[in-house]
Each structure stands twice: as C-alpha cells, then as structure tokens.
Amino acid sequence: MKDYILKDINLADEGKQRIEWARRHMPVLGKIKEQFEKEKPLEGINVVACLHVTVETANLIYAMKAGGANIALAASNPLSTQDDVAAALASEGIKTFAIKGMNEKQYYECLEEALKIKPH
Question: Can you list the alpha helix ranges (DSSP code H) found in the chain?
Fold first, then answer.
C-alpha cells in the first residue's frame, strides 16, 4: 500500500498554516478532538474517508486520528481538492490520496489505495 498519492509533498508547510487557521475557527471540533485524545473512542478502527480535501476536512481527520482511528483519505471531488492540504495531511502520517484535477483513472486508483486499509 502506498502512503500517499499527491501533487507535491513540498506543499505541506503552506497546507499546515491554512489548516491551523481553520482550526482556530472551528472551536466545537477542537473540543471534540480534546475529548477524543483522552478517551480514544476510535482506537483500532480503520476508517476510509472519501471527502472534499479541504482545511475543514483536515481538521475533522485530525480529530478522528486523535481518537485513535487509522485513517485513509481519498478525494471525493478532484475539482475541490486543495493540494497543499493533501500534502500537509500526508506529511503528518495520514494516508492521503488526492490531486486537484486528477483524471478518472487516477481518481479510481486513489479510491483503491485508500480501501487497502480494509475499513471497518
């Protein structure tokens, strides 16, 4: 299994800055993440998320990871994918399969890679 399929991992720093900005504007999700860090309700669960890869989604993914989930993220819409966010997630150890503007073949390759974690 690949760890990621991205446009450019070197976009990670820009993505991290934007994710952090969004985090500061998502206080409810922040509280959930804090609770998840303590309780680990998703410990041992494999989750495949097929979502828009955006700063908001990144914060949701980080909350799930804090809860103990093993996560793979695939883009649900190549047109909405934010390449810097995908790179940031991958650089933090989240299996991420997303490229803005990817073709149909790449799209299905990304879905297949994400499913290799065998979600519950």
Answer: 12-24, 27-39, 55-66, 83-91, 104-115
Residues 6+ apart with CB under 8 A from 92: 62
Position 118: which residue type?
A: K
Contact 67, 43 (CB under 8 A): yes
Residue 98 and residue 107: Cα distance in Å, rounded? 8
Torsion of CA 59, 64, 65, 71, to 10 degrees: -100
pTM, entire model: 0.96
Each residue of 38-75: pLDDT tens digit? 999 999 999 999 999 999 999 999 999 999 999 999 99
Packing angle between helix 55-66 and helix 83-91, nearest 10 degrees? 20
- List the domains of the chain with CATH numbers: 4-115 (3.40.50.1480)
Nearest CA-CA partner of 5 in 111, 116, 120, 104:
111
The answer to whether 96 touches 1, Cβ cutoff 8 Å, is no
